[in-house]
């Protein structure tokens, strides 16, 4: 039987399925956690600072964020996605946060859909990240397509997402990952904006980060295990029983977020580093920064809030900032980076 390549309509339908499944079905990791539960902060009963002294401002890839938060890459390509992206971008502009859009492959296949990603008009000042799957470099994509998604989004950086497990489970997934490092090297040399390597929820190890850095990657988003399982997402929409079972078997596969952060930071002390994968609270954000991340990305909480209302989204960001500020105050630290001081975060015995 001949397997036909996916069309733009197929890709658009998959985007709609992803949104529906993430919002309506239970596709979270169950046995594998982020690993952040294994750490706790040392409480400081006399902080010697006022809460008003705390400064969450964080420089990252040439811009200063008002707080070390990234609205992680999620969606695009549908009417619902357009509404969510506009809402997210407006909030990012208001609060001074960074934002990534979902994979823009669908907009390369159908340029009319680029409008569902276009948010610069409502977020003129934010750090904005374009997004394509790295594996597409083996399926006809190259510098021109990468440059196009960056330029049309007016993005500051390009995220290349790495998702071998998702592609293995996905019906008609793109599973030729051979020779990608060389193509990534060429892209990093030629593209006029920095390139971020990002997993999609199964983690980037220290050894793999070293190879990506040697290829020219400017920053890493570890996107570890513990949050949304894209193996489970693809299992829910699988068209055959083998793919469905694969998603269930590998639904908890991956490296916990905390382990990824410590491994990558150990081999690259100065690398711009994003922590994501299962973060749900400002306390989680604080732990990732204490472990070595520069900023922290969240997807599912932002998606749930943005699909509800502007008010729900603003309430979520307010509480994340309040939680992070409370950690700083109760550890006696005036800035997020100060959380990396010795003995501030300790493994639980």
TrEMBL record:
- Amino-acid positions noted as binding FMN in the UniProt annotation, renumbered to this chain: 72-75, 103, 131, 198, 228, 278-280, 299-300
What residue intervals traverse the membrane? Answer: none
Task: State the source organism's domain of life.
Answer: Bacteria
Q: Does the record bear Flavoprotein in its keywords?
A: yes
This protein's GO CC annotations = cytoplasm
Q: Name one GO molecular function term.
A: oxidoreductase activity
EC number(s) on record?
5.3.3.2
Positions that bind Mg(2+)? 167
Location of the FMN-dependent dehydrogenase domain: 14-104, 183-343
Localization in the cell: Cytoplasm
For this UniProt record, the keywords arranged alphabetically read as follows:
Cytoplasm, Flavoprotein, FMN, Isomerase, Isoprene biosynthesis, Magnesium, Metal-binding, NADP
**Isomerase recorded as keyword:** yes
- Residues the entry annotates as binding substrate: 14-15, 103-105, 166
Gene Ontology biological process: isoprenoid biosynthetic process
Q: Which CDD domains did the record assign?
A: IDI-2_FMN
State the similarity comment: Belongs to the IPP isomerase type 2 family.
Listed under subunit, the entry gives: Homooctamer. Dimer of tetramers.
Primary role: Involved in the biosynthesis of isoprenoids. Catalyzes the 1,3-allylic rearrangement of the homoallylic substrate isopentenyl (IPP) to its allylic isomer, dimethylallyl diphosphate (DMAPP).
PANTHER family listed in its UniProt record: ISOPENTENYL-DIPHOSPHATE DELTA-ISOMERASE (PTHR43665)
Q: What is this protein called?
A: Isopentenyl-diphosphate delta-isomerase
Q: Which organism is it from?
A: Halomicronema hongdechloris C2206
